[in-house]
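Exam revision sheet. Question 4 asks you to relate a sequence to its structure. Input first:
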Amino acid sequence: MNHHLRLWGHPAILDAARLLGAAAAGSVLLCYGLVHLLVWPGAPTGTPGERYRWDGSTGVLDWLPHPAVSAVGGLLLAVSVLGYACGAAGVIGMPVMRQVRLGAIGVGASSSLCLYAVTWPGLQPTPTDFSAGPVISALLLACVLATAWARRHPPRTSAAGGDGAGQDGPGWDGPSQDPTGRDDERNRPGRRTATTVRTVRPARGRD
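Answer key, structure tokens:
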């Protein structure tokens, strides 16, 4: 039993598990981004004469001409797929995308929600067939926002053994502490200062 625990705690095993988890998460994210292609150009449903697709109608942008609506839908679709693809590459560990993976996933999720809002009335065979898409995108966007907020507002750590003092971080004990450490130097045992020398030196009388 202990041998198996030591084996799982080996750094090489942990690194391999981390890499496999990152690869799995990135693959799932990439596949979800590609699922948006069901909106346009679409794919067969398995029923003859029926396809998953967007017929071009909209309820949010119905005041725009049809070519403009199609352009907006195509742009949102491209940004959604590209955002999720870049986020997946960053999760897997691609050097350049690693730094922007959180923002890329956030952009992809936001564009995905806008895409479903624009195309929802015109999704075929029925809009409810695409109902999982907005839910997943909303959850991903919430995770991105929560992670960004946690990074900008890290929890404060109190000093060990303290009862509330030192909560503003290590090295802060109030205004009475000398930041240069000179008080500790002067009060260190065995250090003879000028005052000490004058105190222990016997006074000489005049001859």
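Marking note for examiners. Residues 159-185, 193-200 have pLDDT under 50 and may be disordered.
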